[in-house]
Design brief:
The structure holds two protein chains of two kinds. By secondary structure, chain A is mostly helical. Chain A has twelve helices and two strands; from the N terminus they run αααββααααααααα. The N terminus and C terminus of chain A are likely disordered.
């Protein structure tokens, strides 16, 4: 696939990189029937929500906190109707608008939270695993302690403390709370993998050639370890949505004035349910279920295709990869 | 050989636990005490005379230097003194005894449901890999995993509580039962059996069905996934191949050889998921107004009662650590290979 690229002059490095990309995605392209179907339906669902999030102002009939239109107030707890497809809430806002704008909030928080947990967790794991020693012992002890703890509670406590402090509740607070809950996971995965990669002959070879630790980590260890991250990060994104919704449900997520959040909306709907009102809770809840399912399908698909233990090729054949030309030596 | 090595393993494991407990306790202290702001004022609201605030500060030792507070804090936990809440003067031991019992009741039955559903669906999905049964099992697993426990709870309340009117949607028992049932263990389910009070038992069970099934089903999602992968892995093992080569019937290979070995890691999975289950219990208890320790935590957080929050978090931490040790120990007992 990479070979069909236009014959623009390429540095050997760029070409090797493209080939590597082709090799990395090969298992996905090779996946068999069901794994393939699950993976692509997951991609479709996730894509649908990304479109909702990005084009929310264009798609949504009203704003998420709008309660009247043309001077006429929307009905309170109105049944789903032609004007309000998913009904209205007790504050007269449109449920559908809140569901659509909710996608925006979820994606914002999850992207920020994932970026932060990766930037903290992955380097810590790399350094701790590669250098070992006292620093490693110390970090492992802390991270293991945190990892054993219910992560919802970590997130609640952090969100509670931040909300009480001057930062206040909001997208950043929610993202930080989620980050705190996930850093131990990335740290563990990366560190344990580094430990096993560290002793590989090619890493030894790089060291023997006199490469500095920085170079070894960046060039050899990192790329090997980072392959494990996409499935985990995708499954983690699914989990992060659930975590954000849980925070919202308990009142520690996004403030209602800042954006629509599905978990918060479900918590508001608990009192409606007692009188048989279903639309205020059902739709935001279904949105959570659908998006988490989509992300999980993508993550499981990646896992199943990248993880050789679970992989099943369409045919029993095995093709040798074209050997990429000699890449550059260690710096 | 087994006797000594098992004991050695246990001692080593326990020795490793101490630093973990110490670090967890320190983190809790750092987060809750060193955080900016005056916890007492926060708990009592802004309109309390300064003298009264100081008096409580002195009672709780909050006026001492931080390092002394830290020492006192660790010493008190060591003695089992978790203190008294700021907002309603309730000893934490009482919260653990009463609300902890409610949480224990809920999580026990939820775990039971999760194991039964998870193991059954996971075994079937793994055994019939890549068939419609597998797809159905996996989708079911993903769907229950993807459903927030509070949303499933809300829908269950709507359908079984409001529309069908079959089951109660909040509390641990009806007020009459609560008033009449004698407490021996604070676990209503056991108390009712203890007294042979079958009416109360039925009432307690009815209250338990929705919360326990909600929490159990959501937890089952994780089990399904792990059991399925385990079965697939085991079915590929050499000894399975060997059993087949010896001409053992496929049914027997699968049921007697593969399933048993695939289920050994379930113990670990159960233990690892206890933390998740406790997190889920906080949400389930809030949804169903279940008077458990997680529900109390949410209430005390709302009231900014730092002493109560700190105490409850410490209890959660200790429970989690204790369970992880227990799981490791059971594993070492079942599988001698672990005891290196």
């Amino acid at each position: 696939m990479a070979a069909s690229a236009p014959a623009a002059p390429r540095t050997p490095y760029g070409r090797a990189r493209l080939l590597a990309l082709g090799r990395a995605t090969k298992p996905i392209r090779d996946a068999s029937g069901i794994a393939r179907a699950m993976f692509w339906s997951g991609v479709a669902i996730t894509f649908f929500f990304i479109v909702l999030a990005v084009f929310a102002p264009l798609i949504s009939p009203y704003n998420f906190n709008q309660y009247k239109s043309g001077g006429i107030r929307f009905p309170q707890l109105g049944h789903p109707s032609a004007a309000h497809w998913m009904g209205t809430t007790v504050q007269s806002s449109d449920v559908m608008a809140r569901v659509i704008y909710g996608a925006q909030t979820e994606l914002k928080v999850v992207v920020i939270a994932l970026a932060m947990s990766l930037t903290v967790g992955v380097p810590l794991g790399l350094i701790s695993g590669y250098f070992g020693g006292i620093l490693d012992r110390f970090l492992v002890l802390i991270m293991d302690a945190l990892f054993a703890f219910p992560y919802l509670l970590i997130a609640i406590v952090i969100a509670f403390l931040l909300a009480t402090s001057s930062i206040g509740g909001g997208i950043l607070t929610a993202a930080i709370a989620i980050t705190a809950a996930y850093v131990p996971l990335y740290f563990r995965v990366v560190r344990n993998h580094v430990i096993s990669v560290r002793e590989e002959p090619y890493v030894d070879a790089a060291r023997a050639l006199g490469a500095r630790p920085r170079t070894v980590i960046r060039k050899y260890v990192f790329f090997n370890v980072v392959q494990n991250v996409p499935p985990i990060a995708t499954l983690n994104a699914a989990d992060a949505i659930l975590l954000l919704a849980s925070l919202g449900f308990l009142g520690y997520g996004i403030q209602p004035t800042q954006g629509a959040e599905w978990g918060y909306d479900v918590s508001r709907a608990v009192s409606d349910a007692a009188s048989g009102i279903w639309w205020t809770g059902l739709f935001p809840g279904l949105a959570i279920v659908l998006l988490v399912t989509g992300l999980t399908l993508v993550g499981e698909g990646l896992n199943e295709t990248i993880n050789p233990v679970l992989r099943r090729r369409r045919f029993g054949r095995f093709e040798f990869e074209p050997v990429p030309g000699p890449t550059e030596e260690a710096e | 050989m087994t006797g000594t090595s098992l004991r050695t393993y246990l001692i080593t494991r326990l020795a490793l636990v101490l630093p973990m407990v110490f670090i967890l306790l320190t983190l809790v202290f750092l987060l809750l005490r060193v955080a900016p702001g005056n916890p007492i004022e926060a708990a009592l609201g802004g309109h309390v005379p300064a003298a009264y605030v100081h008096q409580i500060e002195r009672r709780l030792g909050f006026d001492k230097p931080l390092i002394t507070q830290y020492g006192d804090y660790l010493w008190n936990i060591l003695r089992g003194h978790l203190g008294t809440t700021i907002t309603d003067n309730r000893p934490l031991s009482q919260i653990i005894e009463q609300n902890g019992a409610a949480t224990l009741e809920l999580t026990f039955f939820a775990m039971l449901i999760a194991i039964v559903v998870g193991v059954l669906v996971g075994l079937v999905a793994g055994r019939y890999r890549d068939t419609p049964l597998d797809v159905f099992g996996r989708l079911f697993g993903i769907l229950v995993y993807a459903t927030p426990v509070f949303f499933l709870g809300l829908m269950a309340q709507l359908v079984f509580g409001v529309w069908l009117n079959w089951l109660p949607t909040s509390d641990q028992a009806s007020p009459l039962t609560q008033a009449l049932l004698q407490t021996h263990t604070n676990i209503y389910f056991i108390d009712a059996i203890w007294d042979g009070n079958w009416g109360a038992l039925w009432d307690v069970t009815k209250h338990l069905i929705l919360p326990a099934s909600t929490l159990g089903l959501v937890t089952a999602g994780v089990f399904i996934r792990l059991v399925r992968v385990n079965v697939i892995r085991t079915l590929r093992d050499d000894y399975i191949e060997a059993a087949r080569a010896r001409g053992i019937v496929e049914r027997r290979v699968v049921y007697a050889h593969a399933f048993k070995n695939a289920l050994v890691p379930v113990i670990t999975i159960v233990g690892l998921n206890l933390a998740t289950l406790l997190g889920g219990a906080v949400l389930t208890e809030t949804t169903f107004n279940w008077p458990g320790i997680g529900h109390e935590l949410v209430l005390y957080l709302e009231n900014r009662d730092y002493v109560a929050v700190q105490g409850i978090i410490v209890v959660f931490a200790l429970v989690v650590v204790a369970v992880s040790v227990l799981v490791d120990f059971i594993n070492a007992y079942v599988d001698p290979r672990i005891r290196y």
